[in-house]
Amino acid sequence: MEKKPFVPGPRRPNNSANGAARRGDRGAQSKDPYATNERIRAREVRLVGDNVEAGIYTIQQALKLAEEQGLDLIEISPTAEPPVCKILDYQKFLYQQKKRQKEQKAKATKVVVKEIRFGPQTDDHDYNFKLKHAVGFLQEGAKVKAYVFFKGRSILFKEQGEVLLLRFANDLEEYGKVEQMPVLEGKRMIIMLSPKKK
Q: What is the pTM of this model?
């Protein structure tokens, strides 16, 4: 009688596949920014929100309350002692969080700094041209960094440069306030102006 070759059963490959799936699940879960339901590790949690009586509950009590309402238990402050949780619809909660972040980003506008360069002996025509530009920048909400650049021996006229910058700040008084008085940095004397809040 001929011996049949040994063929391993499907059990082993299945097990490893399940293991991989389980590991995959864990990986997928770690992408969630908040721990929910059974993934909350604390023994006790502080419940807050409109749909519960605020207070400290055991994790079992909190999960039961969430289940009764058909909602999720969400850990919103894991570092608190005990962690703070809310009972909400998790998907709805994530959507609200994203919406709030978008609004905050929109409010946090980037500060733009526009530079205006003068020579130590800038004539009136050039000065007025640059002043007009600075008014426009400040009205747009940008900061203005004006500086006098001293070439070679012109550093001897640094007092003249300071007078020019102070005159510039004075002429822009209606549109901007001085954030930094004239300071000499290397070959440049700089003044910073920020727009006045409307």
A: 0.45
